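Subject line: Sequence and fold of a protein, written as structure tokens
Enclosed: The protein record, placed directly beneath this head.
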Amino acid sequence: MKNKLILITICLLAIIPAKTKAQSNFSSPLFGVGVVVSDLQKSLNFYINGIGMVKEGEFSVNPDVARRTGLTGGIPFNVTVLKLENWTEANQWKLMSFGKKNKGKKHKFIQDDFGMRYITINVKSLKPCIERLKMIGVEFLGETPTQLGENQYFLLVQDPDGIFVELIGPME
């Protein structure tokens, strides 16, 4: 009788699905990051011509929607959507500008302020990134590119408004 009870328990455990991870309430594993920039054209130049992102599209938010959603209190705005690749399964980097100059100073290190300070982008090769960034006059920070491992390098730059961008990958 004891053996039958053990066998029944084992069978029940085998057919009842185990919950090994919490159920997600997310409808997509992707996310979009909205970045308010002081000069949209300078930022587009940096992210498209320097980093190598691609423009996916753009959209406008009218005054009524901006107010009702609580985003701006009624100021309309346009958003330019960038991605690392023109692929539906890529995160979005959404740039918008309200025509205001950046009043804060451009910080030298990530610990100098709060909030979103940097992004990390893994690349197949740093060489084209370095060439593009040099061509548009972007300064490399620290002693970068810095070798991390046998064939991994780290390059640190800042966008026109001070967001740090880490580029990691092989040199070739």
User: Anything to note?
Assistant: The two ends are 69 Å apart (CA to CA).
